[in-house]
Amino acid sequence: MDQWIDILPNVLPVAEVHEFLAKSEGGGIAVFVGTTRKNTDGKITALLSYDAHDTMALKEMKRLADVASERWPLIRTVLLHRTGEVAVGESSVIVGVATPHRVEAFTACRFLIDELKKSVPIWKKEIDENGHEAWIGDEWQTQ
Three-state secondary structure along the chain? Predict the structure, then answer.
């Protein structure tokens, strides 16, 4: 199985992800792209800022890809996350898989994004239109 796992400090390569996944014998490709939304709980978001423990995050992302490959017939897998400032409409995370059939693709992709958000040491800070900052998802902050 081919894997593309990385943490990048710049714009995520959405088109290249699809090309990577499509160059396989897979019949199903599923891609999730998480972007910064403008409105969150009634507040206007100016931007998000991500920080990561790169070594630990990459190790955990690799572990998740391996777990997924044991559960589903993955041909190719992508787990990319951005660090630094991510403006409204820009991508912060891309998860993608190529599998023989669509059901496995959808299921594995959903598993990977859900588990990435739960267990990978990447922290998100939200900055609203008034400059107020708040760390979102404090699971790692309290452990």
Answer: CEEEEEEECCCCCHHHHHHHHHCCCCCEEEEEEEEECCEECCEEEEEEEEEECHHHHHHHHHHHHHHHHHHCCCCEEEEEEECEEEEECCEEEEEEEEECCHHHHHHHHHHHHHHHHHHCCEEEEEEECCCCEEEECCCCCCC
pLDDT in tens, 78-114: 999 999 999 999 999 999 999 999 999 999 999 999 9
Count other Cβ atoms within 10 Å, centred on residue 133: 10
Domains assigned to the chain: 2-133 (3.90.1170.40)
76-85 pLDDT per residue, tens:
999 999 999 9
Of 60, 64, 13, 37, which Cα lies nearest the Cα of 124? Answer: 37
DSSP code of residue 132: -
